[in-house]
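Researcher: I need the complex structure. Ligand is flavin-adenine dinucleotide. Inputs:
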Amino acid sequence: MSKNTTKAVFWITLYIVLSCAPLGFMLVGERPMGREFVRELSVALGFVGIAMTTLQFVLTARIAAVKAPFGSDVVYYFHHRISLVTFGLWLAHPIILFIKFPWARDLLNLITAPWRARAGVTSVIAMIILIVISVWRKRFKFEYVKWRVWHGILATLALALVMIHAYMVGKYIGTPFKQALWLGYGAACVLIVAYVRVVKPWVIARHPYQVVQVDPQPGNVWALALEPVGHAGMRFQPGQFAWLTAWHSPFTDTEHPFSFSSSAEQPERLEFGIKELGDFTATIKDMQPGQRVYLDGPFGAFSVDRRPDAEAYAFIVGGIGISPVMSILRTLADRGDQRPLFLFYGNLDWESIAFRDELEALCQRLNLKIIYVLERPPEGWEGEVGFVTAQVLERHLPADKLQEVECFVCGPPPMMDAVESALLSLDVPLQNIHAERFDLA
Ligand SMILES: Cc1cc2nc3c(=O)[nH]c(=O)nc-3n(C[C@H](O)[C@H](O)[C@H](O)COP(=O)(O)OP(=O)(O)OC[C@H]3O[C@@H](n4cnc5c(N)ncnc54)[C@H](O)[C@@H]3O)c2cc1C
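Model: Output:
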């Protein structure tokens, strides 16, 4: 078993144990006797829901050790999906009670209900708002940075209120031992919030970077170069990313994730390829040499360094998905790596190919074959046209290497879905397909 697999098994086991631990708490020590099974079931589901909610804080706290074995995108994907299960558990608790005990529906009246019910009902309302603004954020055109602030406020409020509800009801947490255990879950959340909001920004603020260059690239991309100020900088694996804060202090929660595009062998100068897509990315071109910015990282599992023994690598990218692959190619060139490399690079047209000149130069230093795939090719174009399909991949990848080649996919979501299916249809093993999705939210 590889080191990463062992770590992943450890974290998954811990997750399951901590999620189910409340059921164990219920069974030990003093218990309310003679209550109906459905009532106990609803309480059990509620407790597991609370425990899983506290773990949601851990999942999004950007703790590198937790994310390392899986990759950030997988952890965020899990966070999104499991939040719906958690929400289901939160709802199951009152719904079961309301169905089985119609009198309990009176507790929904916030004016007449006792405080323990008010806390419980308000926590569920906060949770519903949280889920609605998260699932339909893009439809509501809710700006990402503002949404994140509200997401944090509502999650903290919901959890605090539901804990108060559980304490005031008092069943199963009557003994000091059980109260201490629940306090442990609550305290873990408070500590994580303090770490994320205070300790981490403070550390980041003490390790600033300065802008040294902002260069235009084709395709509305800006190559941003940074140098550490007064510290050694950041070591990363090629293909990883960092969260960038510019124009604000690290305490403001306005950072954005970007993949390193520079060589991991030259950590004294960090570069990013940033495509102008929205409010923040439109400000990159206005950055001035000497301007202070901040980085939190490195994160991510999209790296050849996690598959160092591969016989060959294939990179299948679209548009700005080239950014992490530039880092990988630059790093492999600096290391003098001569293994076969295949770069399938999808773009709208010839003019929008970012880093084109440097890619051609890298071909001199690496055993690299570049296959440009253009949606709107220029006249006389003899290369690939349209999208990266199974046929395109099959034409250029050596048939006898398809089982060994490690494939790295990064680009717009529809392209990534299509490429992943194409690779599987060519019998590329699933464990050899690595993806970086630029949309965590
Ligand atoms: C792991 C990862 C690596 C990335 N690497 C690159 C890269 O190398 N080059 C590049 O150009 N882009 C990269 N991106 C995408 C980049 O983070 C977004 O394009 C950028 O944050 C958009 O911000 P905006 O304000 O300009 O656009 P907006 O119009 O505000 O946002 C456009 C979309 O980008 C996403 N987004 C916005 N802000 C954030 C945020 N703070 N965190 C996460 N997602 C956000 C949201 O889905 C949003 O709907 C990466 C994203 C991820 C998750």
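Model: Summary of the prediction. The chain has a mean pLDDT of 91.
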